[in-house]
Amino acid sequence: MGKALIIGCGGVASVMIHKCCQNSDIFQEIMIASRTKSKCDALKAKLKREKTKINTAEVNADNTAELVALIENFNPDIVVNLALPYQDLSIMEACIATKKHYVDTANYEPKNEAKFEYKWQWNYKERFKNAGITALLGSGFDPGVTGVFAAYAQKHHFDEVHYLDILDANAGDHGHPFATNFNPEINIREVTSNGSYWENGNFLHTKPMEIKKVYNFPQIGLKDIYLLNHEEIESLALNLKGIKKIRFFMTFSQSYLNHLKCLENVGMTSIKPINYRGMEIIPLQFLKAILPDPASLGPRTHGKTNIGCIFQGIKDNKEKRYYLYNVCDHQECYKETGSQAISYTTGVPAMIGTMLVMQGIWQKPGVHNIEEFDPDPFMEALNKWGLPWQEDFNPDLVD
Ligand code: NDP
User: Fold this and answer.
1) What's the whole-number average pLDDT of the chain?
2) Using a 6 Å CB cutoff, which residues line ligand 1?
3) 140, 245, 278, 292: which one has the fewest Cβ atoms less than 10 Å from its Cβ?
4) How far apart are CA 300 and CA 297, in angstroms?
């Protein structure tokens, strides 16, 4: 069918690229381009592939001119941003300049401020529309599948969804005292920020980890969950008809939280530059350099993830509750792609979203969040490509 340029070659990109190779009728040729070309070449050497042709390149995705040159040279149908949220805008600029579709899995965040919001990317709506190209924002799991689940619940199960709780549980054990399951810098910026949830038209803010609940997850059991600020709340608050309240919860073990608190207390999670022996360093970036690389966790992570959405609302004038979730096994993911389930649950939806845009099934000039598209082909593809979903029509609620 066509050609995709994939930018970044970390844990998530590795899974997406494995999946593209399994889906070679769609992904006939890909280019893996990242800051460190040797990583792209090492991944290429590991891939089992039938037909997909693979190229590699070095690119600094902060530099739009470099990106434009690469895109013009390779001439892909679509550009997939699996680098970091800092690169969203430079890559979107390059897509406009070359008139190529754009997909990502995380919304823009400025490097010098731990703050994510869609406003920067939504500002590109008119320019993408005028260029006749589609930007699909947030095609990972959360954001990503959670938005597709919301669109599916709204389309098939409710007249109005009033309450949504997004629950992200990871019962995986990697045996390290402290490690993050995806990019440590992005992950720690997220979990040390204030929490927030959306209610009746407003964001309400909490201190980090201030709200704790306990939930009994299917196939995982009882877990502590903590309320976080998460990016899909902002778009779902606009796109779910009749919605009154949206919260996002994630599991953390006590050991993870103790380590994090200690690192925070000594200043290691700070993003303010400090001078060390005449050199400027950012403590969090230094911490990232000494923490285990998330891509190395695959062989040692055992257990399962359970990520899903609990909806409450009205159908045919009756109150209704509905739980949609996916359970994913770390070791199964590792056997298939060499990565643990966090990269897997993000890389598979990135491949599916890209495929739907390439096929024209999800093309709509402009900048769109994932829940703005018809969820049905994506839901079907989740079952086919390794993330089958399950339903519960009488779930326990988070109090
Ligand atoms: P990694 O840190 O493993 O990979 C990031 C890759 O981007 C690395 O290959 C890195 O290169 C490359 N990169 C960084 N900066 C540049 C640059 N300026 N130019 C070119 N390449 C660059 O991260 P993950 O794979 O864990 O995460 C990838 C993305 O997925 C992130 O944006 C993350 O927030 C998002 N994510 C989304 C989730 C979801 O469910 N929606 C869940 C998990 C992650 P190098 O190797 O040289 O450092």
Assistant:
1) 96
2) 8-13, 34-36, 39, 59-62, 82-85, 87, 105-106, 140-144, 182-183, 186, 294-295, 346
3) 278
4) 6
Domains along the sequence of the chain with CATH: 2-137 (3.40.50.720), 145-337 (3.30.360.10)
Q: Which of the listed residues 9, 183, 185 should we mutate to test ligand 1's pocket, taking the one with most ligand atoms within 8 A of CB?
A: 183
Query: In what helix (H) or strand (E) does residue 103 lie, and over which residues does it extend?
Result: strand 101-104
- Probe residue for ligand 1, chosen from 7, 12, 62 as the CB with the greatest number of ligand atoms within 8 Å: 12
Question: CB of 269 within 8 A of CB of 283?
Answer: yes
Residue 50's pLDDT band (cuts 50, 70, 90): confident
Summarize pLDDT for 22-41 with one digit per residue, the tens: 999 999 999 999 999 999 99
Buried b (16+ CB within 10 A) or exposed e, 15-37: bbbbbbbbbbebbebbbbbbbee
Nearest CA, atom 23, ligand 1: 183
